[in-house]
Specification:
The protein has helices spanning 11-24, 37-47, 63-73, 88-96, 109-120, 128-142, 151-154, 158-168, 173-180, 184-198, 203-210; strands spanning 2-7, 28-34, 51-54, 78-83, 101-104. The chain is of the alpha/beta class and 217 residues long. The chain has 2 domains: 2-126, 3-Layer(aba) Sandwich (Rossmann fold); 143-216, Winged helix-like DNA-binding domain superfamily/Winged helix DNA-binding domain (Arc Repressor Mutant, subunit A, Orthogonal Bundle). The mean pLDDT is 86.
Length: 217
């Protein structure tokens, strides 16, 4: 059973989300619901949940800053931002501070639950439209040329390049498996090799070091 904490200043939304989780997911338990991040942080340190669903804008400390504090207090806890705001600044800062997902509140409940399950296992979660927007912006700002490519990128096989591109675009392992016609476990094996070649230790880290090179994948 995965333990979940909800942090959002919209009381009705929190109660609705709690009901969705309790009624549709027998593998999650809501162990706390808080309406501001300041109150939530002390409880999160005590509860040590597997997952925190965190709003971005709240009274007092905002959700992005709260995410950084959660990572300091409970480094094994996964944080997913769940918000109506899709501004690039929030996205970038959230991932810099350790969030493993950035989701929008208008997504279907079953899709949210699927993303929660993936996030608990450390899989990076973000809508494809947001990932593509960030990638386009990063490539334009970076002005990457062939001379700037890291050596490890040349060492990737065609399949590894395809999988890396899909990771950077925000696809889950199961979605990648369907697109490249491989078993999910085989995709996981490929991703482990990508971690080694890129010298990273997590999916968000792999995305950060790779997204400027997506045009070459």
């Amino acid at each position: 059973m995965h333990r979940v904490v909800l942090v959002d200043d919209q009381v009705l939304f929190v109660e609705s989300l709690k009901s969705v989780i309790q009624n549709r997911a027998d593998d999650f338990e809501v162990v706390g619901a808080f309406y501001d991040a300041d109150t939530a942080l002390g409880a999160i340190e005590a509860l040590k949940p597997d997952l925190v669903l965190m709003d971005v804008r709240m009274p007092g400390i905002d959700g992005v800053q709260a995410t950084r504090k959660v990572m300091e207090l409970c480094p094994d806890t996964r944080v997913v931002m769940l918000t109506t705001y899709d501004e690039d600044e929030y996205l970038t800062r959230a991932f810099q501070y350790g969030a493993v997902g950035y989701l929008l509140k208008d997504m279907p409940p079953d899709s949210l639950l699927a993303c929660m399950r993936s996030a608990v296992s450390g899989q990076f979660q973000m809508p494809t439209k947001l990932a593509n927007r960030l990638l386009t912006k990063d490539q334009s700002a970076a002005g990457v040329s062939d001379a700037d490519l890291p050596d490890w990128l040349y060492d990737l096989s065609r399949k590894e390049r395809s999988i890396l591109r899909l990771i950077v675009e925000g696809y889950t392992n199961d979605e990648i498996a369907r697109q490249v016609f491989l078993a999910p476990q085989t995709v996981k094996n490929y991703i482990s090799r990508l971690y080694g070649k890129a010298d990273v230790d997590s999916r968000p880290h792999l995305i950060r070091v790779s997204r400027s090179y997506i045009a070459y994948l």
